[in-house]
Amino acid sequence: VAQKIYVELNNTVPCVRLLNATHQIGCQSSISGDTGVIHVLESEADLEWPLSKGPNPPYMVLLESSLFTKSIMMKMKNASSRVAGVVVVPKTSPPEFSPHTTCPNENTGVYTETYDHNLAHCNTTVWNPRGNGLSYEEFDFPVFSLKEDNETEVIKQCYFDHNRVVNGSGLQYPLCAMQLFSHMHAVTDTATCMRRSNISLSLSLSLSLSLTVMVCDPLGGYNVCAFIRPYNSTAFGHKENESVVIAAARLDSKAFFLEDSTGAEGSVSGFVTLLAAAQALCEATQEAPRTRNILFAFFHGEVFDYIGSSRMVYDMKNNMFVIDLDNVHSILEIGQVAVRSGTNLFLHSDPVSRRNNTVHDEVTNLVKNLQSSTAGLNFSFVETDFSQPLPPSSFQRFLRARAIPGIVLADHQTDFNNRYYESFYDNAAHLNLTYPSNLSPEEQLEFVTDTAKVLVILLLLTSQCKKPDELPNESTYLYSYLWVQGMVPPNSTQRESFCVRTAVRLVKAVSPAFDLGDYVSKEYSTWTKSQWKFIKARIFLVASRDLEMLTLGVGVAVLFTSLLVTYFVSTKADVLFSSVREPNNAAY
């Protein structure tokens, strides 16, 4: 029966709830899901129907990405009693759209009131002027994104067949409706949800229950780290006579719909560039070893108040990493580098730490070396104004701990070139990355792009595994060993698997606030993500209120009639079902 009533939508992405030390953001449905009559929004003026004129609230508003703006979303938020939910259809990209803030990570970077109040809160440079802060709003109705064109057409056809008003005429039942399920377990803030999770865990342990209901989880993952010359992974703390240059980039990105955060320019451009540099440096240093070691660090969770970099700094300060801060000579970070306006890339440095002559001299030397390296190339490195602060970057977390020479390389001199910073439009199309036109969708999945070839450098500093007796001085504390599935050779169906030895390590990237139990920390990230039971979307036809009440009334009448009949039959059963006994001497 359910299959005949409902059309399930299987390719959707929900907006979910995130929490930090002070509040919650994101979206959720009621515990039983939210249901509304579908209305396709064709222009902003068309909002009048679901927000005031429409006779059948609440409405489930379907809109294309060109109408997915903060002004429209806030109007629906302020009239949430008439809006059951919002469904976004990603289509053509607008000229610009950034749901992030204008000053990313402003409260957890280095520029605070105590470091230099003139540079705090992006006072001198607004890095993301297009930011509208939509991702940091809270909506008490579900918001979904549709990923499948066929499902979009099914919804629109259902709307046109049943819901569309023509020439002002009234709607005829049945109407096309939608139901969205995205109820979030966590509420209020991180301290509240972590307390409830801990209570649930304690009860499960004390009662020996196998099922623990976690309310929320800390955001995070793993940093990816690799040294040119690997260190013993079990020997933490300071390394005598060791000087290390950190080459860094961030791995993660964010969007209003968290699972849609591709971050092509925001993050991928930086870490792919660093991977290519790592490959080149690896080959060069094998031929001519350098006096300084190099740590390639790819930080995770940076968009959420620098989770990965703050974790590494915390571990270095507490002798929980293979080197400490005193071993760090300098830092070179690759930021957004894909959208260049001209032939220049820009070198950003920290004006406050450069007031120290030693740091200033090291930064000046680093700038000169980088600028000289572009000789003969079709671009150049340009140093930004000394008075300008660093853009949002992992380097800032190291500066909070110690004055370290460093440079952030980016494609922007002042504010971001990225028109879609931390949005689902920051994708391959934004960077004009395309597949060959003669490839089918299936062939595109198999096609190996130049970017994918560069990513294979995660075999960085790797070699084929050898037998133990061929490597008598081998140390498992210097390397890790992985079995790689390998590729399928031409004219074959079997993958060529092999073992690799690598110096690449995964290091936990979870905010120190959760180790310290400080869920209201102002020093470290406190972001968590709510858990949920299930995510589901479906459409169906809904009858008129009068018909529903008539059906209910008939059903109640039938129920009471059947009860009366049952009672009557029960009380008269001895009469209705008795049989006349024949005499014992009856003969035939």
From TrEMBL:
Q: Name one Pfam family in it.
A: Nicastrin
Q: Report the coiled-coil segments.
A: none
Q: What is its main location?
A: membrane
Domain Nicastrin small lobe: from-to ranges: 14-186
Q: Return the GO cellular component terms, semicolon-separated.
A: plasma membrane
InterPro entries linked to this entry: Ncstrn_small (IPR041084), Nicastrin (IPR008710)
Report TM segments: 549-569
Task: Report membrane topology.
Answer: Single-pass type I membrane protein
- Which locations, inside or outside the cell, does it occupy? Membrane
BP terms from Gene Ontology: Notch receptor processing; Notch signaling pathway; protein processing
Q: Which UniProt keywords apply?
A: Glycoprotein, Membrane, Notch signaling pathway, Signal, Transmembrane, Transmembrane helix
Q: Which domain of life is it from?
A: Eukaryota
Q: Which CDD domains match?
A: M28_Nicastrin (cd03881)
Q: Which family does it belong to?
A: Belongs to the nicastrin family.
Protein's name in the database: Nicastrin
Q: Which organism is it from?
A: Oncorhynchus kisutch
Phylogenetic classification of the source organism: Eukaryota, Metazoa, Chordata, Craniata, Vertebrata
- The gene is NCSTN
